[in-house]
Recover the amino acids of this structure.
């Protein structure tokens, strides 16, 4: 009987280990200022899992690493992470999120974000997504980000490298504009995160 119980326990362990490895998980890297994960003070190497809520106070930030090349910085804000096996979604309640995704979010994964008034879909790119009081701002350093206002998701704007876009409440959505200066400033943040400009 004990042998059967041991075999059953091992089988359950392998099933749960396989199930949990299907889900993405990040690890806290660099921290500056007051940052919490699910209300507790964040420390280096803390896990960021499905449902984690990251809050960074004013002038604070935290880098969440998924591997050597994939990193997400939450700055001056609150972000809810939804990390499933083939889909990653960030709800940006407020603040700035600097995102560099290359390896981890391979072609079989989807990555999306939303704020109070906008949604965005991306794949393998480097960009800033900011939820501000006046609306949502996107600045792309590499790749393309498709952004839509929540009031009408049929309106889709593709924001390419060195372009930016504001989606403001109650205003028509304009075309993305060339903004190499903003792209340069955003790339400086990525360099601080250990992600060099291409």
């Amino acid at each position: 009987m004990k042998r059967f119980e041991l075999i059953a326990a091992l089988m359950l362990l392998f099933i749960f280990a396989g199930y949990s490895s299907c889900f993405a998980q990040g690890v806290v890297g660099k921290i500056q200022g007051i940052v919490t994960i699910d209300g507790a003070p964040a420390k280096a190497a803390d896990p960021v899992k499905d449902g984690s809520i990251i809050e960074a106070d004013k002038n604070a930030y935290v880098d969440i690493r998924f591997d050597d090349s994939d990193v997400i910085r939450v700055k001056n804000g609150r972000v809810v992470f939804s990390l499933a096996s083939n889909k990653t979604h960030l709800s940006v309640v407020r603040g700035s999120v600097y995102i560099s995704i290359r390896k981890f979010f391979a072609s079989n994964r989807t990555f999306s974000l939303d704020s109070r008034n906008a949604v965005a879909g991306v794949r393998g790119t480097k960009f800033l997504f900011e939820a501000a009081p006046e609306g949502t701002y996107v600045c792309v350093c590499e790749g393309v980000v498709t952004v839509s206002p929540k009031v009408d998701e049929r309106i889709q704007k593709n924001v390419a490298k060195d372009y930016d876009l504001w989606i403001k409440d109650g205003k028509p959505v304009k075309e993305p504009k060339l903004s190499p200066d903003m792209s340069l400033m955003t790339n400086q943040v990525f360099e601080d995160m250990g992600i060099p400009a291409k």
In short: The chain has one domain: 24-192. The radius of gyration is 19 Å. Residues 1-23 have pLDDT under 50 and may be disordered. The first helix runs from residue 2 to 21.
